[in-house]
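User: Show me a protein chain along with its predicted structure.
Assistant: Here is one chain, sequence first, then structure tokens.
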Amino acid sequence: MTVALSALLSYFAYTRHFLTAAGSLAALFVALDIGLLGSLSWLLLIIVFVASAFITTRFRLLDKSRIGVQEGMRGERGAINVLANSLPAVIIAAIHYVFPQHSPLLSFLYLVSIGAATADTVASEIGVLDGNARLITNFRPVPRGTDGGVSLLGTVASGASALFIVSAGYGLMSIFGQAPPFFMLPYAALFGFLGSIVDSILGAALERRAIIGKHLNNISSIVIACLLALLLVP
């Protein structure tokens, strides 16, 4: 089942021009890792994440192309982008395989990581459609697509997407009897959303100055969100 779903996910992403050939291959290995080392419910959540990213990426793609803020030529993403958004989840899955006795905590952190990846992706894809972007560190107006730029539309979309993906993940995990305690659900959504905020802060403070790149920013913001959740959730 895991192999079939992973192959189907990779094939769909490639044939729909959501991922490049290299990106699809990376997605295949990520899906296999998460499905085999984590759980089937974790893999199913990856599929929901990819579907959500695909929909928001293609949403008003022509408008994004006109202002030059789309991913790739037609919204497609490469292997580095795939790894930047999934590496923390892959590491959590590997830890889960070694320490299955900590499954509730690791399932929670997995939800946070996917929540942060989703929130950031949706914030970027929807937020660029809002012409009233402001730099998160000083709230001065900036051109849309600017690293560290935020908008009301993007922020609302980010929070809503984090809540959606975390709720979907919790539902899937519950079906398979692998869900963390219910009280952790709002925390997972909150810290997933905060991951997107951290991404914007790092974008404004470091990425705009070329101190770090976009992909390192993605990984760092997800890791920070997970660490904050680990340290602050009772």
